[in-house]
Amino acid sequence: MLLGSIEAGGTKFVCAVSDQELSIQERASFPTTTPAETMELVIDFFKKYQEDLASIGVGSFGPIDIHRESDTYGYITSTPKIAWQNFDFVGTLKRYFNIPIAWTTDVNAACYGEYVAGNGKRLSSLVYYTIGTGVGGGAIQEGRFVEGFSHPEMGHMLVRRHKADSYEGNCPFHHDCLEGMAAGPAIEKRADIKGQDLPEDHPIWEIEADYIAQCAYNTTLMFSPDAIILGGGVMKQSHLMKKIQVRFKELMGSYIDYPNVEEYLLIPGLGDNAGTMGCLALAKESKLHS
Asked: Is this model's pTM higher than 0.85 or not?
């Protein structure tokens, strides 16, 4: 029997199938355009495995409805991507595949991937942030996602403005929240150049490190996780983590004891595979409990 994964991102969908040991058999990527176009490609990808497909795990951009008793469970809800607003994602899949479908956010899926097979393995609690085109966060405690009336939106926490930063913020809802100040587009709009093309000693990186360190500070005091993993395209700047760790220690001061910062603030052990592995692991779990 095979497991399916759909990592539904704002710019692309990554689909994969694996065996029960999460060894990937095939993977494909499709651009995120409209539901009609993108979902047709997704469904065609899985149709050839239909006889052997036991379950599918989906990690989607959001906001999404995660409550099974809700009339709109399985929907993408109030997303800024207008074509996808109020889209019945799980219901669309169910029309073609009458199998268990695990449903969560894309960042929760990445968090779960790191929890079962990456740098969160053997830890009891973990928080994962993706810092890229947007900022999102997911948290796990003893194998369960931390959530209530909805999934967390930790990427929109408020941060204090860096004293050298006059940028107004890029978030259409909150302007200068974490996403508005630290996501990739905010870096690019400050410098008129993509972050990947900025030199390591550019002063913007100190500003960026400050906002991400504030995020880690807030997360530490709220959740006290065993580790915080920082992923996404922005974190592919190899010099950035050290700056974040230094600033985090400054912010924390001597208020509480916390793990060694080099073992506490981490990059993903699975790299770009975290979301896919998380979706596959969730698919396996949903089949076991179906």
From this structure: yes
